[in-house]
Amino acid sequence: MRRRFRFVAGRDPRAWWRRRTVQFRTSVAAVFASLLGLAVIVSISGAFIGLLSLESVDTRLRTESRAVAANLTGGAAPGRVAGDGIRVLDTAGNPVDGRGTTALRPWEINSLKAGKGVTRSGGTGGSGAGVRWVGRVVAAPSGKPLLVLARADLSAYRDVRTTANRVLGIGSLVVALLVGTATWLAVRGALRPVRRMRLAAAQLPVGERLPLPEADDELRSLARATNDMLARRDADTERLSRFTGDAAHELRNPVGSIRAQAEVAVVHPDPELAQETLRQIEQEARRLSELVEGLLALARSDTATPPEGEPVELVAAARLVVDRSNTAGAGTRVRLTTPLSAVTVWSTPAEVATVLDNLVGNALRYARAIVRVSVLPTSRGARLLVDDDGPGIAPEHRPHVFERFYRAEPDRARDGGGSGLGLALVAEVVRRRGGSTQVGSSPEGGARFEVRLPGRGR
Q: Which domains, ranges and CATH numbers included, belong to the chain?
């Protein structure tokens, strides 16, 4: 039966590693990286030292074999020049110096005759370091070719290589520790401004920002991003506070009115009075519903990212709103003036419908007999004009009509007037698309609302 072993959450090495500080992880990574690099360097250096030592041995052996070859050429007997480190063989590998066999293989004999060194395992005294042979072919006075071999025990060579590897290994450990310590101190110093920035951000009051470091480095980018985040936080807090205050203020009147009228109906159970009271409650409930919908629409426009824009045919959208308004059965007629060609703006169908519905609805609320909607193309988009023949808007009220809950005539809101949110929603939607809104006098005698929408995305 196979068993599956899993790390406990608290004992998972990866989880343990992720919980360590940046300073610790960076230092450990630097130590391991330096150890890896130094290990490669030690291996290469050891091999290079070995090659140099072996070359030094070969050079010494060639010098010895050259001296022996000179004696043989001068007529010395092979037995007299041979010794522990010198052997004289024929070219077939057979001894001619009166000593025992060398145990060299035929291919090794061929390598020695070619002037190449040969290393055999074993060694004198049971050292096990190996034996190095170097050969030279010479001609005896009789003309017979002889193979002169020089031999050296490699125990000293092995000791040199072992000592070099030990010194390099210890040096690598020392260097790795120095690298880790230096990395620890460097990261600690580099993170000190981040620590100060964190402490400053924790104690930062609303409206204040972190100071930007003088150096144009990562810390400056971090401080700038943090300040942008704080600005968004303050803006969201301000919007939430304003929304809460506006909602509490505006909802108080219709809710209080509904409650008072309901209490009157309960105290005075007169059928005629109850019918009138229900009619008034229905009007206040409608006003309350419109107010809540307007507040939710403004809240969404404040916080949500605007949807991706697309080309919207403004003439067709205006015709739909005008036809719907005339079909509703109101006494005021809505007329539409458009060019013969299509007029395209950059927005979304929902946003264009919101702008048209609120502007036409506002004009119908105050017009006497006629509302005129005009669509005019421009070089950069389109102009949307909504004129009415109502009382108009006094010049001192015009700069404020697009503010939330602002009413030029507050009393009219209780007589079927708006909640003061429709025009604010229009201004917000148009602003997000890079357009503009303004209000003035209409040729019809009332107010003129003008909206400019771009023809393509910014």
A: 12-202 (no CATH), 204-304 (1.10.287.130), 306-408+418-454 (3.30.565.10)
